[in-house]
Q: What sequence folds into this?
């Protein structure tokens, strides 16, 4: 570790750790019941116990995992697919390619409102079907908003994240196109070898990274399920948000306990994905084995 | 050796974090906020040239316009005070005030707050407000019922002069009269009968959405009677016992709701949209003039009219309060007085600014002002002022609201 | 061609909600089952322009996002340079460190750091807002720049160094041109993420400094589709101007050198 490196790293570490340590410190403190503003001064595990023992909470975790995993995996698959398409078409259709990126710039809450206007039973698609005569009554349109499966929520995330994944992976695909694949092919590699030795090692680290970013974001996002979700199927982030915005300050410790549990789940998922990624071709562990 | 820098940095960070924390502990002992307010005339003198902030809900463009076009210019012209309106939800305001207090900050950004109910209860409990101020506000003494229920209690919480009434709200239903050939359902029993005859045509916004929460409380009060809810202890078990018939009613209604009550809309805007599309036959709002407004905006057709329950609908008031950490309490007092003045409030009652009902005591108003207010209610499709006042249920205690919401969730939603 | 039609379909799906957004800003009546508004008018746009905070919010949003981008790049580029070639800690720990801001819920971060910012007298200041935004934008920028550094490798720079090039020359003629596309992407994304920040702007800025999301969100939460749409359109325009400007600035330098 040279002095120069320390100088280069300093601002990054300083800002990040200041914020993170402060947040972690406070979250743990409050979730353990130390909250002097309302006179709570005794540390206790009671809040964690209540939260973890609650059947509704266990359902909530399952539902949140379902939403986050479905949205993340679909976004990665479709985004990667779109990246391949952009790779071949963006040169000929730069305008369309740029248009496709617009959702990246829209805040989630706006996309949620737009989806409401497109997918709800009185939304644009329902109107279209009604106009062409496929729909006689508004209630014949399937429930895509506030539904059990969270289709509306997933659509919002896909709308936002597919372009993001496409743009993020496109740069790597361009490098692949620059010659690695050709070189490998010229050297007599089979398609399978090209995939395993060239494409996968270059792509999987970025896909793992994107998986972590998208999973953590969708798992902790409250704005979208708050607007489009079904009240009977709450996500853990919405529960935490509802507790945090409740006027009653005595539920704060529970809210912070939920936040802490959410962080732990994201943490576990991150470590898991990084571990898998490290063992795949292109990962650090994989290379060490060779 | 390699990893030592790492620990050194960590130690530095911990130090950096602890340093200000120590400092905060010292400063938190000093009196929060600066200045005290004695009288309005003194406040007017000392606040010249100052800037005062107004923090409140920012999602109603007409109420925003009123502050920007009526209050702000008047404050500048009359008192040379600059008003800054900050659109912020009340829970964010409370979060901010709480954190500022924790940090021992006594120069807060927030001066005047638009608040009521549970939030007032919390703010008062956490000692975030400055007061008493009501007796220092001439508009309050001259125009309002100083000893009236709503001047003394906000959602059953003792006000003690920490709030000044700012506006009225009452739950009002709206329906398309052609779809109710036998008349509007003016009781919970009639509503259930209508729902059974017209399955899927009724729904409500899911609590904790606050109008939906009021709808649920209104139903419960209609079924079990307000007094029972009022007298029940503010515990989960006690309330459950008292309101069980209300919850049973909601469960009986559930299969006849839109989507068999398996899901609910999330905002009143959505409820209005479903109503306008003919998907459901009934909507509701906390604003008594809602139907007139929507008819004016051509969102609802002219067959839409308002109605109330015979036993009444939930009414409450919203208030203005002053933050304890306010740095311009004198200017804040002047602002509160101006916002509750007759001239400003009569403007607020106009269509352009959202038809808001002033919190005034009718007997204390000038005949001209009284006439002007009565005329507004001759607007098509809304109940008369007399009917509104006659069919009122007071708001249940603030503490009980989250409990009722969680009981609804447990016994109605997830049942 | 099949690929082009897939792209067209994707663009159509992207456009669908956007069309709704645009129509809402000019509609005065749009009831079911009408496909397009029954009545058009400038009512919503008028309401938006009447808002006294409108122009300050546009300006503040732009300035804050631009400044955040500069600060983020200044912090991320040197850090990424060191981290891309470092050997003193495991790659996993490193990645983990960078992504921590994603893992911790924003609301917990914001409410707790507010204390810190109050104590450092940074609340209600542009510096405070920009720093808090930087925290949230850093992971995005780090990820992209780190990737660029890794893909570039040290080879070129080492070759140049062995040929006697000065650090400044290496940066100007090798590192920057090779990195420019990555940096431009990182800058654009940083600008976008900063512009849409709501919680930190609110809590650290305390409402003293108005930005577009601060005005937009209450309308969105209250289901005021018209006004929310109008602000979103402005929001999109500001984003596009910012991203194009950044691309021009960063890409331009790169271009000039090439010629």
A:
């Amino acid at each position: 570790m040279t002095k120069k490196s320390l100088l280069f790293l300093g601002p990054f570490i300083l800002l990040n750790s200041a914020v993170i340590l402060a947040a972690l410190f406070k979250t743990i403190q409050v979730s353990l019941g130390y909250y002097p503003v309302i006179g709570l001064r005794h540390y206790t595990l009671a809040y964690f116990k209540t939260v973890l023992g609650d059947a509704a909470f266990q359902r909530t975790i399952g539902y949140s995992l379902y939403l986050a995993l479905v949205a993340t995996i679909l976004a990665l698959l479709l985004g990667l697919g779109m990246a391949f398409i952009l790779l071949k078409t963006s040169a000929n259709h730069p305008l369309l390619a740029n248009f496709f990126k617009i959702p990246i710039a829209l805040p989630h809450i706006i996309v949620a409102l737009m989806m409401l206007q497109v997918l709800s039973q009185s939304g644009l698609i329902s109107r279209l079907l009604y106009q062409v005569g496929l729909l006689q009554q508004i209630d014949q349109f399937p429930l895509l908003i506030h539904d059990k499966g969270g289709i509306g929520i997933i659509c919002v995330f896909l709308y936002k994240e597919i372009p993001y994944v496409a743009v993020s992976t496109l740069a790597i695909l361009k490098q692949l196109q620059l010659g690695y694949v050709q070189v490998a092919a010229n050297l007599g590699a089979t398609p399978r070898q090209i995939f395993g030795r060239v494409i996968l090692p270059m792509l999987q680290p970025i896909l793992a990274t994107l998986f972590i970013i998208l999973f953590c974001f969708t798992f902790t996002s409250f704005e979208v399920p708050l607007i489009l979700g079904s009240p009977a199927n709450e996500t853990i982030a919405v529960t935490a948000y509802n507790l945090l915005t409740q006027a009653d300050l005595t539920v704060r410790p529970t809210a912070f306990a939920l936040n802490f549990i959410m962080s732990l789940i994201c943490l576990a998922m991150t470590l898991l994905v990084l571990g898998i990624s490290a063992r795949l071709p292109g990962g650090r562990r994989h290379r060490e084995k060779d | 050796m390699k990893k030592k820098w790492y620990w050194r940095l960590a130690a530095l960070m911990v130090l950096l974090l602890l340093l200000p924390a120590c400092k905060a502990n010292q400063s938190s002992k000093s009196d929060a906020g600066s200045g005290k307010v004695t009288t309005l005339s003194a406040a007017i003198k000392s606040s010249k040239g100052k800037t005062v902030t107004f923090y409140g809900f920012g999602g109603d463009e007409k109420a925003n316009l009123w502050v920007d076009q009526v209050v702000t210019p008047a404050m500048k012209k009359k008192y040379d005070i600059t008003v800054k309106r900050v659109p912020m939800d009340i829970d964010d305001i409370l979060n901010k005030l709480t954190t500022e207090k924790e940090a021992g900050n006594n120069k807060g950004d927030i001066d005047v707050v638009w608040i009521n109910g549970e939030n007032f209860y919390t703010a008062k409990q956490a000692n975030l407000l400055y007061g008493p101020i009501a007796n220092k506000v001439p508009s309050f003494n001259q125009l309002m019922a100083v000893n009236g229920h709503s001047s003394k209690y906000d959602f059953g919480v003792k006000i003690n002069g920490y709030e000044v009434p700012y506006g009225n709200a009452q739950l009002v239903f709206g329906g398309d009269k052609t779809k109710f050939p036998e008349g509007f359902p003016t009781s919970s029993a009639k509503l259930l009968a209508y729902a059974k005859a017209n399955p899927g045509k009724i729904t409500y916004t899911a609590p904790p959405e606050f109008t939906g929460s009021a709808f649920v409380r209104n139903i419960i009060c209609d079924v079990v009677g307000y007094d029972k809810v009022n007298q029940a202890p503010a515990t989960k078990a006690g309330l459950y016992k008292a309101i069980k018939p209300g919850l049973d009613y909601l469960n009986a209604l559930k299969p006849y709701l839109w989507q068999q009550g398996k899901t609910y809309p999330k905002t009143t805007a959505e409820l209005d949209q479903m109503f306008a599309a003919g998907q459901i036959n009934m909507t509701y709002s906390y604003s008594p003039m809602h139907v007139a407004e929507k008819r004016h905006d051509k969102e609802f057709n002219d067959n839409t009219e308002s109605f109330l329950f015979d036993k009444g609908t939930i009414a409450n008031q919203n208030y203005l309060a002053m933050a304890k950490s306010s740095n311009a309490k004198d200017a804040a007092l002047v602002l509160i007085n101006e916002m509750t003045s007759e001239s400003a409030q009569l403007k607020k009652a106009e269509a352009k600014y959202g038809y808001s009902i002033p919190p005034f005591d009718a007997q204390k108003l000038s005949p001209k002002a009284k006439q002007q207010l009565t005329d507004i209610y001759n607007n098509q499709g809304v109940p008369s002022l007399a009917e509104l006042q006659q069919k009122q249920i007071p708001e249940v205690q603030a503490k009980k609201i989250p409990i009722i919401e969680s009981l609804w969730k447990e016994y109605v939603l997830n049942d | 061609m099949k690929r082009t039609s897939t792209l067209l379909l994707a663009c159509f799906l992207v456009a669908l909600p956007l069309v709704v957004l645009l129509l809402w800003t000019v509609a005065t009546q749009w009831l079911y089952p009408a496909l397009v508004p029954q009545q058009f008018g400038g009512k919503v746009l008028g309401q938006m322009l009447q808002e006294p905070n409108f122009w300050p919010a546009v300006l503040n949003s732009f300035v804050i996002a631009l400044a955040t981008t500069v600060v983020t790049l200044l912090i991320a580029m040197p850090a990424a340079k060191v981290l891309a070639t470092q050997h003193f800690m495991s790659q996993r720990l490193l990645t983990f460190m960078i992504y921590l801001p994603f893992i911790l819920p924003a609301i917990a971060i914001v409410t707790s750091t507010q204390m810190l910012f109050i104590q450092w007298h940074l609340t209600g200041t542009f510096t405070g807002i920009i720093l808090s935004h930087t925290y949230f934008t850093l992971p995005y920028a780090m990820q992209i720049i780190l990737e660029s550094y890794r893909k570039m490798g040290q080879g070129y720079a080492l070759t140049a160094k062995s040929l006697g090039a000065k650090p400044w020359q290496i940066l100007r003629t090798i590192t920057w041109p090779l990195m420019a596309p990555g940096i431009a992407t990182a800058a654009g994304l940083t600008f976008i993420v900063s512009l849409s920040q709501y919680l930190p702007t609110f809590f650290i800025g305390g409402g003293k400094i108005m930005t577009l999301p601060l005005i937009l969100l209450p309308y969105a939460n209250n289901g005021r589709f018209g006004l929310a749409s109008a602000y979103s359109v402005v929001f999109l325009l500001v984003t596009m101007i910012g991203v194009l400007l950044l691309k021009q600035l960063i890409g331009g330098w790169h271009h000039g050198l090439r010629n």
